[in-house]
TrEMBL record:
Responsible for synthesis of pseudouridine from uracil. One of its GO terms (biological process) is enzyme-directed rRNA pseudouridine synthesis. It catalyses: a uridine in RNA = a pseudouridine in RNA. It holds the Pfam family PseudoU_synth_2. It comes from the Bacteria. The active site is at D133. This is Pseudouridine synthase. CDD domains: PseudoU_synth_RluA_like. Residues 86-234 form the Pseudouridine synthase RsuA/RluA-like domain. One of its GO terms (molecular function) is RNA binding.
Length: 295
């Protein structure tokens, strides 16, 4: 995989330029061991090279092999966006993101690896940038190299927007929930609002309400495990279908939560990328049954 930039300054040492681009000293050392991996205007150079404005800086990123414990498994992928560096998918409810002892071969990661192999990708290591619970649908983003993953998690200003159906009428109709979250003492899975837990902030706005439920748009200001589910359960408005956190069972077969929108600055161009995933059929049907609009 190659990355290219145009230098915008005079008398800038190449090593300083590369550090500004997020390359660690360790990563630079690895690149320097590969002949010709660092170039300016198509010519191999040392990192002590002095750049002038307009120089084209090119890097060949180290090849990444697949995890030998991850088995490829061909399956349908709903691709929302793809370029040389990123892959965005619309995940269905019930699909796990990563392998587990109970599901080692049919996770989304297994399917992405099979897709990379089929497409002849040079790098086969799986780098999820975002994750969703098994029964949450919506946008999942993968980086196609460790360096791209690093940029996405440190410099992309990534934001996520969710749609959720919760029990009851939420008041006030908009606000920020600022309550720390930690593990419960009797479970390694379940979380709770907990003094001394990790800071967690959830911004929300009510789109529509009925006597039975509220339709919310939600912005995660932090990314704690089960954050949305825990916060609204604590307020007495668990997600519909979320039996783990007290949600009404039988009305839908999973928690009524969908990652609808992801926005970020592209790690190489800096341009904003806007991704949107349509609401799945089960949530559309439930919204209509509850006479909730705004979706």
């Amino acid at each position: 995989m190659q990355v290219t930039w145009t230098n915008q300054e005079d008398q800038l040492i190449l090593s300083d330029f590369l550090k500004e681009k997020g390359l660690s000293r360790r990563f630079l050392t690895k690149l320097k061991q590969v002949k010709g991996a660092i170039r300016v205007n198509h010519q191999p150079v040392r990192v002590t090279w002095e750049l002038v404005k307009g120089d084209q800086v090119e890097l060949d990123l180290p090849k990444e092999e697949a995890n030998p414990h991850l088995a490829p498994n061909e399956g349908g992928l709903d691709i929302l966006y793809e370029d040389d560096y990123l892959l965005a998918l619309n995940k269905s409810a019930g699909q796990t993101c990563l392998p587990s002892p109970q599901n080692r071969s049919s996770s989304l990661a297994n399917k992405v690896l099979a897709y990379y192999i089929k497409e002849g990708a040079e790098n086969l290591k799986i780098h999820p940038v975002t994750r969703l619970d098994k029964d949450t649908s919506g946008i999942i983003l993968f980086a196609k190299h460790q360096y791209i993953h690093h940029l996405m998690t440190t410099r992309s200003h990534l934001t996520k927007k969710y749609l959720a159906l919760v029990q009851g009428q939420v008041t006030p109709t908009e606000g920020v929930i600022d309550l720390a979250i930690g593990r419960t003492e009797d479970s390694i899975i379940k979380r709770q609002v907990k003094q001394g837990g990790k800071p967690a902030q959830t911004s929300y706005r009510v789109l529509d309400q009925s006597n039975q439920a509220s339709l919310l748009t939600i912005d995660l200001l932090t990314g704690r495990t089960h954050q949305i589910r825990v916060h609204f359960s604590h307020l007495g408005h668990p997600l519909l279908g979320d039996s783990l956190y007290g949600g009404q069972a039988g009305i839908i077969d999973r928690q009524a939560l969908h990652c609808q929108q992801v926005d970020f600055a592209h790690p190489l161009t800096g341009q904003r990328v806007h991704l949107q995933a349509p609401l799945p059929e089960d949530l559309l049907v439930l919204s209509q049954r509850l006479k909730l609009g705004g979706v």
